[in-house]
Structure formats: C-alpha cells, structure tokens
Write a structure and sequence with these properties.
The structure is a homodimer of 248-residue chains. The first copy, chain A, has helices at 57-70, 98-103, 109-125, 142-145, 147-153, 170-175, 178-184, 205-214, 234-247; strands at 2-3, 8-10, 13-22, 25-34, 41-47, 73-77, 130-139, 157-163, 192-197, 220-225. Chain A is an alpha/beta fold. Chain A has a single domain (2-247), classed as Alpha/Beta hydrolase fold, catalytic domain (Rossmann fold). In chain A, strands 1, 2, 3, 4, 5, 6, 7, 8, 9 and 10 form a ten-stranded mixed beta sheet that branches. In chain A, a hairpin with a 2-residue loop joins strand 2 and strand 3 (13-22). In chain A, helix 3 (109-125) packs across helix 5. Chain A binds chain B through residues 198, 205, 209, 212-213, 218, 220-226, 235-236, and chain B through 198, 205, 209, 212-213, 218, 220-226, 235-236. Strand 10 (220-225) of chain A pairs antiparallel with strand 10 (220-225) of chain B, so a sheet runs across the interface.
Amino acid sequence: MEWRDGGTTSMGVTERGFFVERSGDLIPGILWAPAEVTGPVPLVLIGHGGQSEKRNPNGLALARRFVRRHGIAAAAIDAIDHGERGPIVATEDPAGHLDYIALWKRPDTFDRMVADWQATFDALIGLPGIDGERVGYWGLSMGTMLGLPFVAAESRIKAAVLGLCGFTGASAVRGRFGDRHRADAPRVACPVLFVVQWDDERFGRDGAFELFDLLGTKDKRLHAYPGLHAEVPPEGTDATREFLAARL
Amino acid sequence: MEWRDGGTTSMGVTERGFFVERSGDLIPGILWAPAEVTGPVPLVLIGHGGQSEKRNPNGLALARRFVRRHGIAAAAIDAIDHGERGPIVATEDPAGHLDYIALWKRPDTFDRMVADWQATFDALIGLPGIDGERVGYWGLSMGTMLGLPFVAAESRIKAAVLGLCGFTGASAVRGRFGDRHRADAPRVACPVLFVVQWDDERFGRDGAFELFDLLGTKDKRLHAYPGLHAEVPPEGTDATREFLAARL
C-alpha cells in the first residue's frame, strides 16, 4: 500500500488517497479517518454504485458521517473499470455504458473484485490507526452486486449493509450475476441490514426478497421504503450507519 | 370516563385503570403516565393481540418503556370480547377460541372497535396531562386487524405502528377482514412503520407486503425480521418505539 498524498483535513475528517497493488493491478482508494486519533478505530469499506466512482457525493457524505458521528474510519476503492480505473463513467443512456454492460459478461469480474477488496482489506488493517477486528462493509446496488461475493468470502467482515439488488428486473437480467449470488448468499454469515426500494425500477422487489431470503445469516433484517432505486430516504441511510456503528 | 382506582406508581410510571362508556358498553382500559408530570405529554394507544388482553406482559413492558424512556403516556383497552369484556381468553387450540372465531364472523366487529377506540381517544385527550395533538397508535397482529380501520378513520392519529397482518395465511382466511382492510388501507394517511415476520406462520409475507403496498400514506417503511409470528426481536420492538417517539 502506498499513500498518494499527505492527506487533507476538513472538520475533523482526514481524507487521504492510496494505491493498493495486486497482481500488477493498481487499485486506487481513499481513506477517511478521524483527524484526532486516540487509538485504533473500526473501519467500514464502502462499495460504490454502478457507473459511479469512489468519491461520489453520497459515498463521500456517508464516509464523513461515519467518521464524524461514530468515530469510524471509512474507505472506498474504484471498482473494476470505474473511476480512475476507467473507462466506465455515468451515462444518460438507460441501457448503460457499453463497457459497463461488457463488465458483466466477463467471467472473472466477481473474482477480481473479491480479490481487490481483500487486498484493500489486508492493506488497511495493517495501518496502526485501524482495528482489524472491527471491519464492516457497506454497499448498495452495484455495491451489493460486487460486494456480496466479497462479504461471502471474507469471514473477517463483522457486519454488512447490502441491498438495492436482486434476481429480477432490468438490471438483474443485464447483470447476469444471479448464479453467483445464489451460490454466495448462503455463505454470508455476518449480521446484515438489507435495503429495498419498494418501487425499484431496476431490481424488482420480489427478486430482492428472494436474495434476502437466501442470505445464510440468521441475524438479518430488511428495511423497505417507497420510491425508486436511487430514492433511499435519509432515514434509510441513517439506519444503515447506525446498524454498522452498533456492531463495530 | 371514570377512574377505577387511585393508581399505583412504580419506577416513575403511574398505572391507573379507567372505564369509558359508549352506547351502554363499558370499555375497560389502563393509562400509564409519567409519575412526575411537568406538562401535557404525547400518548400512544396500544392495541393488543388476539386472545390476549390490555395488560399482557409485552404490552405492559412496551407501555412502561414509552413512559420511562420517552416521557410518552400509553393506554390500552380490552378489545371486544377480550380480557374483562370476555369470554375470549388464550387457548392452546391452534384453531383458536370458539368465541374468537365467532368474533370475525360478526358484521359489526370492526365498526364497534373503531368506535371504542374513538371514544377512548376522546376521553383521554380530555385529560389535562395529555397532549391531544400528539397521539399515536401501536398495534400488531390483531392490533392491526382491529386497529387499521381505526387509524384509517381517525385523522387525529399522528403516526402508527402496524404489521404482523395481511391478506394471506391461516389467520387471514379465518379473520375475513380482507375486504375491510382493502377498503381502509388507502385511507391511512399518517406515517406508518409496518412490521413483518419473514417466517410468519399465521400471515404469509406476500399478503403482508400487499397490505403495506395498499397503505395510502407515502410516509411508510417496512421492517422485516426472520422468525415466526410471535418472534419479533427486541431490535424490532425498539424500532417501533423510536419511530413513534420521533414523531409525537
């Protein structure tokens, strides 16, 4: 792991870019941590949504709140072919960026992303300010598409927020991750809060319920709110933070 | 409204029995309120479950917590033919008490219960210690079967906890309240937290989802937990309290 800069501090939060190298691949990430460090703090790994990147506005606000309100560090990396790892960027085309569509057709996408997260996990818990026994995962939508296999594979994750994902709907058909999720969901063993948007236009709620049902952990709960895919209300996001903060 | 006793106080909670009279019917109830009253407090009306009564252990614990943790008064009444209004009592027979089965076949059950709650509401907000502008409803299972029509009819209810109820499952078939709920759910206009037990053996979750979907309010959320009908975890009950406390 290599720091990219000395970090900047704003309102108690120090933000610092890093690279993790894995098999020649350079994974760019950001760590947000309390500026005043008194001892090792818990960590939440944040998986961003599709056609987004590690420093998207929602993720940034979430990370800062983890630090400021809970004294929990947060980290995000660019997913494969996203952000600085390009070429996928946000597009107005409802069909999605061509390279985004291609991403889901490549057989190694899930395994690569699991390995990326594990390398990042290993690097970050090696830092003196991070408590490696208290690490959680937060990822909705593509953060679940790519994050669920990671949470299933990584027993050191103590709690996870998942959701806005399932086996039905336009995005599920395009994603072709149903088989992978059906195999991995029963292996998710940590406490989970699963978020569903009742009127999700990308993932049908029935398929989301099916995914929740398959999660292997008995310590799970589902929160559903009216609205479209991207309309999780502040109440819902707050509950995901409180959920992880109470368990890390 | 008539007090039945002078009240007893335990750990900051004064519990006092009352009667409300309506069309010759005597409705027995209990009010739990802060022993040290500094001004009008909010009120939560608690509807008990089937074959139970106003002072059941769960309801009692819930009422005391509303008072102790939130400074909110709570009140419960015996439902028609329940508790002191007999003859329905808890039975080990999975088919249910005969008079309980009969209750759902009488055409006036819902209207009587709505009127009972409204008379109780009117009586309690007439008390100097109660703030009539801040009244909520809490009722799961039969507390929703009989309480949803009340919440739909009573616009003065500011927020409601409903759930463990729906259009499918053994209890739904026996209850025959589907038509009433289909008509009333769209009229529920206040914020609602709806609770679902994922493995509910009495109400199927699909039918519960359908009921949630029909609720007219846009300010609604659904919390689901693994387990049978009566296995709502402490986390789930706590969330219902926090929900009402934040809105009253």
